[in-house]
Each structure stands twice: as C-alpha cells, then as structure tokens.
Amino acid sequence: DNAVVLDEVTKRYGRGTLALDGIDLRVRRGEFVCFVGASGCGKSTLLNIVSGLDKATSGRVSVAGRPALMFQEHALMPWLSSLDNVALPMRLAGVPKAQRLERAHELLASVHLGDVVDKRPHELSGGMRQRVALARTLATESQVLLMDEPFGALDAMTRDLLHDELESVWRARGLTVLFVTHNVREAVRLADRVVLLSSRPGRVVQEYPIELARPRR
Ligand code: ADP
Ligand code: ADP
C-alpha cells in the first residue's frame, strides 16, 4: 500500500537544468524515507513535485491525500501567537474555534511548548520556533509529511529533541514522511530507508534500508 508513487519522473527547468532524470520511487504508507545528496542534486525539486508546488516535466506522480510541507524557514506569522499559528491551518480548513484551539493546545504540549502558547515568534528561540512550526505542520491532519531540511539550522541538542518528538508523532499517527537532509547522521537516525540522489543528472543512485535495533510500530 503506497502513499507516494513516482514513475519515470523528469524535471527540467526551462530549457536548462535537468534536475530530475527518470526517478522511480515508491514510499509505503507509514514509511519514513530520508533523501540525501549534494547541494543541487534535486532534493527540493523532488519534494516540490510531490507536494504539487511544482510540476514534473514528464512522468507520473501520485500521492495519497494532500501532503503537508515543512521547510527550514519556519514561515510563522509574526503577528500571531504560537497558539494562533498552530491553529491557522485548522482555521483555513473551517474547524470550529473551540475545537481548533483545544487541538492547538494539545499539539503545542506535545512539542513541550505548553507554557509559551501566548508568545509570538520573535519572543521565542530558533529551536522553539521550529517546534511551533512542527506543531503547525501536524495540525493539518495530513497523512503525508514533506520536510525540507526542517531542522538544518538548529543546534545538535535541539535537533535531537525534535527528532524524538517527530518520531513519536510519526509512530502514533502512522504518518508517511519524506525528509530531505544534508546530514547523513540525521538520515540514519530517522529513516526506515535512505535514498541517495546523484547530482549528475538527478537520479537515484543507491538505496539503503535501515535495520533498526528496536521493533517498529
Ligand atoms: P538547497 O540546496 O538548500 O535545497 P538551493 O540553494 O538549491 O537550496 O535552492 C533554494 C531555492 O532556490 C529552491 O526553492 C530552488 O528551487 C531555488 N533555486 C535553486 N537554484 C535555482 C536556479 N538556478 N534558478 C532559480 N531558482 C533556483
Ligand atoms: P537540492 O535541493 O538537492 O539542493 P534543487 O532541487 O534545489 O537541489 O536543485 C536541483 C537543480 O535544479 C540545481 O541545479 C538547481 O540549480 C536547479 N534549480 C532548482 N530550482 C530551479 C529553478 N526554479 N529554476 C532553475 N533551476 C533550478
């Protein structure tokens, strides 16, 4: 049962760069896949195409439901509190106010930010802002998460904490995650499978299944 399927996906920008060249990819429901590779190898392009932000030049893309995206730049609304930032996707989806505020409180508590619900982004540290962004991403109820170096700018300790939080939510909700990173250690820490993209031209060159010492869900 696949959540994301790419068949022979090619992306050429204008008449120039061939960013992806015939990518075949199957991601099972509930799988956590990390994409690694040198800068410029097509990782962001791949996520943008899976998300629908950008269109493939050729090939077929199919995704179960509407995915949620999270970037390195948190893109929180500066004038909104943490609570209202997290509640925003639910507001856009028409979730009634009482219900979305309760859910936003729960999500902020799950990333250990229960005591800063009223603070605005500029009053928080970088790591806290990324945790708010993670909570907001999870507020979408999407089953497929697309994450483009979401923790790249954080110090190692904050990153470890966010890995734990992401992993526990991923397990609890059976999410499918496509996660881009430069950091091989991060990929091995998080993934069921690591996909290495080659830069010339953008192709899958190698896949590494990760054998985990502990049982999966
Ligand atoms: P990263 O290596 O962190 O993915 P990049 O610098 O490759 O970041 O890309 C950052 C953004 O700029 C992406 O949204 C990408 O699509 C866009 N971009 C990258 N290269 C070009 C380019 N040659 N022309 C226009 N946009 C580009
Ligand atoms: P990565 O995320 O692995 O760093 P990208 O997907 O950002 O790689 O970029 C893949 C290739 O496509 C790079 O050569 C980049 O310069 C080029 N590229 C990315 N976005 C654009 C764009 N909007 N216009 C033109 N070229 C782009």
Assembly state here?
single chain
What is the spatial order of strands in the main beta sheet? 5-6-7-3-8-9
Per DSSP, the total helix count is 6
Order of helices and strands: EEEHEEHHHEHEHEE
What's the Cα radius of gyration? 17 Å
Show unreliable segments.
212-217
Overall mean pLDDT stands at 89
Largest sheet: 6 strands, mixed
The fraction of residues assigned to DSSP E strands is: 25-35%
What's the total number of strands? 9
Shape: globular
Bound molecules: adenosine-5'-diphosphate
Distance between the termini: 16 Å
User: Helix proportion of residues, in percent?
Assistant: 25-40%
> Which structural class do you get from the secondary structure elements?
alpha/beta
Give a description of the structure.
- By secondary structure, this protein is an alpha/beta fold.
- Helices cover 33% and strands 29% of the residues.
- The chain has six helices and nine strands.
- The protein has helices at 43-51, 82-92, 97-110, 126-138, 156-173, 184-190, and strands spanning 2-12, 18-28, 32-36, 58-63, 68-71, 144-148, 176-180, 193-199, 202-209.
- Helix 5 links the parallel strand 6 (144-148) and strand 7.
- Helix 2 (82-92) crosses helix 3, helix 2 (82-92) runs parallel beside helix 4 and helix 3 (97-110) crosses helix 4 (126-138).
- The longest helix is centred in the last third of the chain and has 18 residues, at 156-173.
- The protein binds adenosine-5'-diphosphate (ADP) (2 copies).
- This is ABC transporter ATP-binding protein.
- Keywords: ATP-binding, Nucleotide-binding, Transport.
- Residues 4-217 form the ABC transporter domain.
